């Protein structure tokens, strides 16, 4: 599935809204989203594997009924979202 996500909203979630939109220390331009059975368990697993927590698991009713997400960075700094409905 391909999802288009507003960069400003992505920057708010990732805590990078203070960074410029382009350049070497810029906001993210892509995010890998993975649907999982259990966001909390997936988040803990990713942290144990070297992921860096960005936003802990939280319910996001404003994004869709029953949606729960968590955001991390992989060891190379890529932004990841775990989600479950």
UniProtKB/TrEMBL annotation:
Residues 1-85 form the VOC domain. InterPro entries: Glyas_Bleomycin-R_OHBP_Dase, Glyas_Fos-R_dOase_dom, VOC_core. This is VOC domain-containing protein. Gene3D superfamilies: 2,3-Dihydroxybiphenyl 1,2-Dioxygenase, domain 1 (3.10.180.10). PROSITE patterns: VOC (PS51819). It comes from the Bacteria.
């Amino acid at each position: 599935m391909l999802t288009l996500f507003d960069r400003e909203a992505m920057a708010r979630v990732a805590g990078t809204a203070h960074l410029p939109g382009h350049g070497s220390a810029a906001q993210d331009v892509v995010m890998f989203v993975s649907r999982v059975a259990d966001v909390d368990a997936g988040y803990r697993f990713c942290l144990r594997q070297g992921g860096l927590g960005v936003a802990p698991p939280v319910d996001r009713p404003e994004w869709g009924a029953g949606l729960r997400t968590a955001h991390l960075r992989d060891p190379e700094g890529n932004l990841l979202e775990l989600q479950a409905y």
